[in-house]
Amino acid sequence: MLQQHYTILYEQSAVSSAKIQLYNHLLAPAGVTLSWIVYDANTHSLHRDQLVADAVLVNGSENADEINVENLSLLKQGSRRLVAVFPTSLIEADSARLLVPFEWQGKLVQKFLSRALPISLQDLKFEIVTGNFDQHIELFTSGNSQILIAPLDDLILYDQDFLGARKYMILPLFECPPALMQGVLALKNVTDERLKEHLRQIGEDTTSLQKAIQLSAAYPETQHGVIHLDLPWISFTFLNGFNIGGQSFDNWEMPEPPEAWEGKRFFASTEFMKDFFRYEYFSPADAGGSEATFVASHKAIHDAALESKLRLVKLWAAGTKTWFELAKKDLWVNGSADGIGMETLAEVWSFPGISISKQNLEILTNTESATTWQEEGWNAFGTYELVPSFSTNLKDELSHAEVVFWTSYQQYKEGSQYVSADVIHATPAGKTAQLLAGKHPFIFPSIRAFNWWWKRKK
């Protein structure tokens, strides 16, 4: 086998050391050896007399203008999620330090935690402390009242047992998106074609990441996080951050509804959420007995006995609205599906320290949805029933609509009798889109994405 040798620059850190070991291991069978040379990413100065390199290890702080996609080799994009890890002493404190790589990211996390923490902790005062991964690991492990914010993939690569028994929250993608290259395992400035081919053999396609880079490049004067997701139903790119004046903003790049919608009468169920159903509640004795629980709606949690059980499990929510409502009940939520479907959590749930599967998870939802989940082999409980209560006004609005955006399958099932046969259906991604597939709906990434589009349209 022909031996090939390449030189790679990297910024020294505990995470980089783990990435180096991974690259060495993956490339060795192809007869590739690597020399790794430390450099300072801020000054681009080398710690040795090395002026030429074949590639540079991405450190996560790169902006779009620092990435040439033609010379980018992606090993793994990862989950793209950030994690907040909390000290056990947090409950005793009235203030906490947010250890984050970027100040703008700290502001997004601070805003989110002010509503996502259990209500007994929502008066916490936060101080944002920026620094690199190694500095923050040292601060977190040596001091109290410090909250570590890091890419989930980096933290697991550094120490797969780090989450262990610690309290954590997997932060939502839309409220707390990662920086462009944060948590991405890649090499940039790869110019040697043979090295590119070796990396291509062990890595992932860069198309998805390129779309995030393109959207990020369109906002050069802003501080933001950005993600691109390819779901079974839709692909989209999302950006959230602060403009040059410090004002928050977000942007979606997603398939636009067809021009044929122009001028049509539109019904947005988001404006009638309380008008479809009334609710009848009950409490299955076995609910809340699993190691982990996914709550499809906050309405599923309505009695003190069930709340007490959920204080002892890994608790996940369908989206941030449900998360915030559970926090009002003083419940600790570990993460959410961002309103884009529970199946999008599969990779995150496979990480050490999280370890959630069909065998140890239960789903709490309404009775009809529970039946659907049970048919797919999930342990699901219905804790409330949806009782249609369509007002005359709601029926009239539906009967005149030419396009209807449904936020749930139950809305469609009960409301479709009032719409015309040729009405155009639209839904958010996830279970609703799956169940309505036969109607060929137009799919938005999420209810949040629809609301963004709807506000601009109006």
Our count of helices gives 14
Q: Trace the largest sheet across and list its strands.
A: 3-2-1-4-11-5
Count the strands? 24
Instruction: Give the overall form.
Output: globular
User: Which structural class fits the helix and strand makeup?
Assistant: alpha/beta
Portion of residues within helices: 25-40%
Largest sheet: 6 strands, mixed
Rg (CA only): 24 Å
Short summary of the structure?
This protein is α/β, with parallel strands linked by helices.
Topology of helices and strands:
Blueprint: E1 4-10, H1 14-27, E2 32-40, E3 45-46, E4 55-57, E5 73-76, E6 82-86, E7 95-100, H2 103-116, E8 125-130, H3 133-142, E9 146-151, H4 152-158, E10 167-170, E11 185-188, H5 193-202, H6 207-217, E12 223-230, E13 235-242, E14 248-253, E15 266-268, E16 277-281, E17 292-295, H7 304-310, E18 314-317, H8 320-328, E19 335-336, H9 346-349, E20 361-366, H10 367-375, E21 379-388, H11 392-400, E22 403-405, H12 409-415, E23 424-428, H13 431-435, E24 442-444, H14 447-457
Parallel strand pairs: 1-2, 1-4, 7-8, 7-9, 15-22, 17-18, 17-20, 18-19, 20-21, 22-23, 23-24
Antiparallel strand pairs: 2-3, 4-11, 5-11, 6-9, 6-10, 12-13, 13-14, 16-21
Provide structural commentary.
28% of the residues lie in helices and 27% in strands. It has 458 residues and is of the alpha/beta class. A six-stranded mixed beta sheet has the order 3-2-1-4-11-5. The chain has a six-stranded mixed beta sheet with strand order 16-21-20-17-18-19. The chain has a five-stranded mixed beta sheet with strand order 8-7-9-6-10, with helices on both faces.
